[in-house]
Write the C-alpha coordinates for this entry.
Amino acid sequence: MFSKKKKGIDISKNKIDDLEKKAVSFALEKKKGEIFLDIGCGSGKMGILFFLLGKKVFLYDEKKIPFFLFLLTSYFYNSKNFIFKKINIGKAKYKDFPDNISGVFMGRFFHYLKENEAKDFLKILNKKVKKGGKVFISVCSPDTYFLKDEKFYGKINSPIFSPTKKAKDDFKIEEKMHLYTEDSLKEIFFENNFECCEIWKSNFGNIKAIFEKNKD
Protein backbone atom coordinates (compact mmCIF):
# COMPACT_ATOMS: atom_id res chain seq x y z
CA MET A 1 0.00 0.00 0.00
CA PHE A 2 2.88 2.33 0.84
CA SER A 3 5.83 2.63 -1.49
CA LYS A 4 9.22 1.82 0.01
CA LYS A 5 11.02 3.86 -2.63
CA LYS A 6 9.19 7.11 -2.05
CA LYS A 7 6.77 8.68 0.34
CA GLY A 8 3.06 8.39 -0.33
CA ILE A 9 0.60 5.78 -1.47
CA ASP A 10 1.55 3.18 -4.03
CA ILE A 11 -1.51 2.15 -6.05
CA SER A 12 0.46 0.56 -8.86
CA LYS A 13 0.39 -2.92 -7.36
CA ASN A 14 -2.44 -5.26 -6.40
CA LYS A 15 -2.43 -4.30 -2.72
CA ILE A 16 -5.69 -2.41 -3.19
CA ASP A 17 -8.36 -3.48 -5.67
CA ASP A 18 -9.55 -1.72 -8.81
CA LEU A 19 -12.46 0.13 -7.16
CA GLU A 20 -10.21 1.30 -4.33
CA LYS A 21 -7.63 2.55 -6.82
CA LYS A 22 -10.27 4.60 -8.62
CA ALA A 23 -11.46 6.07 -5.31
CA VAL A 24 -7.90 7.02 -4.32
CA SER A 25 -7.28 8.57 -7.75
CA PHE A 26 -10.47 10.64 -7.37
CA ALA A 27 -9.38 11.78 -3.89
CA LEU A 28 -6.03 12.89 -5.29
CA GLU A 29 -7.89 15.28 -7.60
CA LYS A 30 -9.68 16.96 -4.70
CA LYS A 31 -8.49 19.78 -2.46
CA LYS A 32 -7.17 19.34 1.03
CA GLY A 33 -9.94 19.30 3.61
CA GLU A 34 -12.72 18.09 1.31
CA ILE A 35 -15.07 15.60 2.96
CA PHE A 36 -14.87 11.86 2.27
CA LEU A 37 -16.88 9.04 3.86
CA ASP A 38 -15.87 5.41 4.39
CA ILE A 39 -19.16 3.60 5.08
CA GLY A 40 -19.09 0.02 6.30
CA CYS A 41 -15.47 0.83 6.97
CA GLY A 42 -14.39 -2.41 8.67
CA SER A 43 -10.66 -1.96 9.31
CA GLY A 44 -10.90 1.60 8.02
CA LYS A 45 -8.39 1.12 5.22
CA MET A 46 -10.04 3.51 2.78
CA GLY A 47 -10.74 6.12 5.41
CA ILE A 48 -7.10 6.05 6.45
CA LEU A 49 -5.98 6.48 2.84
CA PHE A 50 -8.31 9.45 2.36
CA PHE A 51 -7.00 10.99 5.59
CA LEU A 52 -3.38 10.56 4.48
CA LEU A 53 -4.33 12.42 1.31
CA GLY A 54 -5.39 15.40 3.40
CA LYS A 55 -9.16 14.87 3.40
CA LYS A 56 -11.62 15.28 6.25
CA VAL A 57 -12.82 11.74 6.84
CA PHE A 58 -15.88 10.24 8.51
CA LEU A 59 -15.83 6.47 9.05
CA TYR A 60 -19.04 4.53 9.73
CA ASP A 61 -19.66 0.96 10.81
CA GLU A 62 -22.31 -0.80 12.88
CA LYS A 63 -19.68 -2.93 14.59
CA LYS A 64 -17.41 -1.92 17.44
CA ILE A 65 -14.45 0.13 16.32
CA PRO A 66 -11.48 -2.14 15.45
CA PHE A 67 -8.55 -1.84 17.86
CA PHE A 68 -6.17 -0.54 15.20
CA LEU A 69 -8.70 2.11 14.19
CA PHE A 70 -9.28 2.92 17.86
CA LEU A 71 -5.58 3.65 18.25
CA LEU A 72 -5.63 5.96 15.26
CA THR A 73 -8.73 7.86 16.37
CA SER A 74 -7.21 8.16 19.84
CA TYR A 75 -3.99 9.52 18.34
CA PHE A 76 -5.94 12.04 16.29
CA TYR A 77 -8.39 12.73 19.13
CA ASN A 78 -8.04 16.49 18.82
CA SER A 79 -8.35 16.35 15.04
CA LYS A 80 -11.69 17.19 13.47
CA ASN A 81 -10.56 15.50 10.27
CA PHE A 82 -10.68 11.83 11.31
CA ILE A 83 -13.96 10.77 12.93
CA PHE A 84 -15.42 7.31 13.56
CA LYS A 85 -19.15 6.81 14.19
CA LYS A 86 -20.80 3.55 15.21
CA ILE A 87 -24.12 3.47 13.39
CA ASN A 88 -26.73 1.18 11.84
CA ILE A 89 -26.92 2.54 8.29
CA GLY A 90 -30.40 1.10 7.84
CA LYS A 91 -31.61 3.44 10.58
CA ALA A 92 -29.44 6.43 9.73
CA LYS A 93 -30.77 9.98 9.84
CA TYR A 94 -29.78 13.13 7.95
CA LYS A 95 -28.08 14.49 11.08
CA ASP A 96 -25.67 11.54 11.14
CA PHE A 97 -23.82 12.79 8.06
CA PRO A 98 -21.96 16.01 7.19
CA ASP A 99 -22.92 18.36 4.37
CA ASN A 100 -20.95 18.99 1.17
CA ILE A 101 -19.57 15.48 0.79
CA SER A 102 -17.11 15.03 -2.10
CA GLY A 103 -16.59 11.27 -2.02
CA VAL A 104 -18.21 8.18 -0.53
CA PHE A 105 -16.67 4.72 -0.43
CA MET A 106 -19.19 1.98 0.34
CA GLY A 107 -17.66 -1.41 1.01
CA ARG A 108 -19.69 -4.58 0.77
CA PHE A 109 -22.57 -3.68 3.06
CA PHE A 110 -25.23 -2.09 0.82
CA HIS A 111 -26.72 -5.47 -0.13
CA TYR A 112 -27.52 -6.12 3.54
CA LEU A 113 -29.97 -3.22 3.60
CA LYS A 114 -33.61 -3.94 2.94
CA GLU A 115 -34.96 -2.28 -0.19
CA ASN A 116 -36.73 0.49 1.73
CA GLU A 117 -33.64 1.07 3.90
CA ALA A 118 -31.44 1.35 0.80
CA LYS A 119 -33.79 3.90 -0.76
CA ASP A 120 -33.97 5.96 2.44
CA PHE A 121 -30.19 5.92 2.75
CA LEU A 122 -29.73 7.12 -0.83
CA LYS A 123 -32.18 9.95 -0.18
CA ILE A 124 -29.80 11.07 2.56
CA LEU A 125 -26.81 10.90 0.22
CA ASN A 126 -28.77 12.84 -2.38
CA LYS A 127 -29.08 15.70 0.10
CA LYS A 128 -25.58 15.45 1.54
CA VAL A 129 -23.31 14.79 -1.45
CA LYS A 130 -22.50 17.90 -3.45
CA LYS A 131 -22.80 18.16 -7.22
CA GLY A 132 -19.88 16.37 -8.84
CA GLY A 133 -19.33 14.21 -5.76
CA LYS A 134 -18.88 10.49 -6.37
CA VAL A 135 -19.95 7.25 -4.72
CA PHE A 136 -17.75 4.16 -5.10
CA ILE A 137 -19.68 0.99 -4.31
CA SER A 138 -19.33 -2.79 -4.35
CA VAL A 139 -22.38 -5.06 -3.95
CA CYS A 140 -23.28 -8.72 -4.28
CA SER A 141 -25.13 -9.86 -7.38
CA PRO A 142 -26.94 -13.13 -8.20
CA ASP A 143 -23.64 -14.22 -9.79
CA THR A 144 -21.52 -13.59 -6.71
CA TYR A 145 -19.71 -16.72 -5.56
CA PHE A 146 -19.71 -17.96 -1.97
CA LEU A 147 -18.44 -20.99 -0.11
CA LYS A 148 -20.68 -24.01 -0.56
CA ASP A 149 -20.31 -25.24 3.02
CA GLU A 150 -23.51 -24.21 4.83
CA LYS A 151 -21.81 -23.62 8.15
CA PHE A 152 -20.28 -20.47 6.67
CA TYR A 153 -23.58 -18.90 5.58
CA GLY A 154 -24.40 -15.83 7.62
CA LYS A 155 -20.91 -15.72 9.09
CA ILE A 156 -19.04 -14.21 6.19
CA ASN A 157 -19.67 -10.62 5.17
CA SER A 158 -17.91 -10.62 1.85
CA PRO A 159 -17.34 -12.96 -1.10
CA ILE A 160 -14.09 -14.86 -1.13
CA PHE A 161 -11.90 -16.55 -3.72
CA SER A 162 -11.72 -20.31 -4.29
CA PRO A 163 -15.53 -20.15 -4.61
CA THR A 164 -17.88 -23.04 -5.25
CA LYS A 165 -21.43 -21.71 -5.40
CA LYS A 166 -23.28 -18.69 -6.79
CA ALA A 167 -25.60 -16.64 -4.61
CA LYS A 168 -28.55 -17.17 -6.93
CA ASP A 169 -28.24 -20.95 -6.46
CA ASP A 170 -29.01 -20.87 -2.74
CA PHE A 171 -32.07 -19.34 -1.11
CA LYS A 172 -30.20 -18.80 2.16
CA ILE A 173 -28.10 -16.09 0.56
CA GLU A 174 -31.12 -14.37 -0.97
CA GLU A 175 -32.85 -14.38 2.42
CA LYS A 176 -29.95 -12.49 3.99
CA MET A 177 -29.17 -10.09 1.14
CA HIS A 178 -30.77 -7.90 -1.49
CA LEU A 179 -28.90 -9.02 -4.60
CA TYR A 180 -28.42 -6.38 -7.30
CA THR A 181 -28.10 -6.60 -11.06
CA GLU A 182 -26.27 -3.85 -12.92
CA ASP A 183 -29.59 -2.41 -14.09
CA SER A 184 -31.27 -2.48 -10.67
CA LEU A 185 -28.26 -0.81 -9.02
CA LYS A 186 -28.19 1.92 -11.66
CA GLU A 187 -31.93 2.44 -11.30
CA ILE A 188 -31.96 2.92 -7.53
CA PHE A 189 -29.10 5.44 -7.74
CA PHE A 190 -30.62 7.25 -10.74
CA GLU A 191 -33.82 7.82 -8.72
CA ASN A 192 -31.68 9.88 -6.33
CA ASN A 193 -29.83 12.02 -8.88
CA PHE A 194 -26.73 9.85 -9.23
CA GLU A 195 -25.53 9.10 -12.75
CA CYS A 196 -23.54 5.94 -13.42
CA CYS A 197 -19.99 6.71 -14.57
CA GLU A 198 -18.67 3.13 -14.60
CA ILE A 199 -20.05 -0.29 -13.74
CA TRP A 200 -18.47 -3.73 -14.03
CA LYS A 201 -18.31 -7.19 -12.47
CA SER A 202 -15.38 -8.55 -10.51
CA ASN A 203 -13.84 -11.95 -11.14
CA PHE A 204 -16.05 -13.46 -8.44
CA GLY A 205 -19.33 -11.84 -9.52
CA ASN A 206 -19.56 -8.71 -7.39
CA ILE A 207 -20.88 -5.58 -9.06
CA LYS A 208 -18.64 -2.54 -8.72
CA ALA A 209 -19.73 0.91 -9.76
CA ILE A 210 -19.03 4.61 -9.60
CA PHE A 211 -21.89 7.11 -9.44
CA GLU A 212 -21.70 10.88 -9.73
CA LYS A 213 -24.16 13.36 -8.21
CA ASN A 214 -25.43 15.19 -11.27
CA LYS A 215 -27.46 18.01 -9.72
CA ASP A 216 -28.18 19.74 -6.42
